[in-house]
Give the backbone structure.
Amino acid sequence: MIGPARRVRAWREQYSATARDSWRSTDALRRGLVLGAALVVAAVLLHHLAFLLFGAPLLAGSVLALYQGVTGTPSATPRPMPRTVESGHRARLLVDLDPGQGAELVAIRLPDPGDAGPGPVHLLPADAGVLTTRLHWDRWGETIDFRPDLLVAGPDALLVHGPVVGREGRRVVLPAVLPLPPGPLPPRTAGLVGAHRAPRPGDGTELRDIRQFQPGDRLRRVDWRISLRVGARTHPDTGLGDLTTLYIRERHAEADADVIFALDTRADVGPELAGWSEGLVEGVVRPGGSLDTAVTAAASLAAVYLRQGDRVGLVDLGRPQLGLKLGVGRRQLLRLRHQLVTCARSAGWAPRLVLRPEQLPRGALLVLLSAFLDDAVVDRAVAASRWGHLVLAVDVLPEPLVADPETKWGPAVLAILRAEHARRLDALRDQGVQVVRWSAAGAPPNVRLNTRGRPRMRVR
Amino acid sequence: MADVAKITQESAKVLEVGGGLPGWVLRVVLAVAGAGAVASQADTGLEPVFLLLLALFAVLVAVVPASPAPAILIAAVAAISALAGPDWLRLSVLLAVPLLHLVHLSAALAAIVPVRSRVRLRALLRPARRFVAVQVVTLGVAGLLALLPAGRNGTLIEGIALVGTAGLVVLTLRLLPRARRRKFTD
């Protein structure tokens, strides 16, 4: 049984929805007609011409508007645009406008040129056939570029159609890829080809050793010059040379590498400590914050590795189901950048940090991007190092941090936080994990891995 | 050649958004026009307290233009001005007539856009032209009436005036359903 209040509410909602989809009179039209007529009648009945002077303009304006009339169903149709765009790109949005017959004014929500977001409402003349504005994507992530809410008005805005909520123009803006120089990577012996030097002997170009010929060695590896030079040396006892021993030139194998990016999406912090307690708005990343920096770093480093022919994958430490399997090539970079946007959209508190051995292929390089605000991420990085992986910890904590000015404990909190953060990074270094800083301003001056002395590197 | 003509024709219809005046300018115009209409009644002998209240009400009109507030303001100022004395050809009346019309028009326009909007001046050109035309006609009629002899009109003339007013009302009522009928047929 539906109550009368709900019936009335339902009727009103239905009535207003119907009214928005058709031409309807405004308060101004009713005011002009009723008040104008009343003032004219009052002028006649009370013999006051002043009433006529006040009422006649209102009545005449309203009658003129009604006489002109408005028809048709106004519409604003944006022309198609790409679903995915690059960060920093610009484009022009064109909206086909059909205001209907007799319309005089158009109020439409469109972004101001160069600004982000749906933008303000613009009151424009209705004689334009196409509306245009410039779009600029300076932040990566999922964005709503425009939503052309439309209201069309007749003369003097006495009759209106709408407002009709427009369809949102959603787009995925991929994170930027910063140009970085390629750096040395840990070898992976399983591959047959690649760009990195493997510790085992192979058919590469880099010299590994010069040793005596052994059964199984290929003859083409014999270094005749060295064999002759060594053989020509006279033996101190016999005074004769030994030309029966051959020496071969051994080379390193060249292999590709597996690189896993582990993204800590559990927190997104900016430089101001006062804002750290604010929760993440879904899909919105703080510009210049730790997550923004981490995603940019991951995309840029992945581009370098993929360009070298390496396999690259992704692990979301907060939400393991959002990971990306290893892959190669430009498509993998595109997939990874899309996945980074997806991870950032779901970023926020997670019950625990997940990094299991089965997520990391043997011998893979683990690039762990985090602000290192808790011990769990340090534990996982050290564990990965003990599993035999080379771990690169990329610290994305914003710098300089600003204490909360509204509390006297602000500086003390900042000092404790800095000390804890430094202690965590020291602990990582003590365990053989290389740590680099990556600020929001850009890439570090030299992202180069020191592959020497890595702890307990397991080679297959 | 036809393509060039087509592109030229289309580019003539293209309008780049951006620029223009902020939307609150319409509200300011509304508030100034309302306050000006109230201030023009200072010579009617109305208590200053009432004038102050009316001025505050004019500001309220600018805040909520899509409400009965503009109608109340227009009716109040028109009544005060008309009933202040038999001499209708006063400066306060001649000032209040365009100002109240401006209140009506700017309230109608301000009601369809939010405060944080952008208003292209070219969009206001046709309403402004219509405003000027109506005011010229109205004040022209006022000037014509000023030339006519004062005093009570004859019964016949009053009858004709009433019939004329009734005709305007009938014409309005005839046009109103036609406008509504169109929206259902389109």
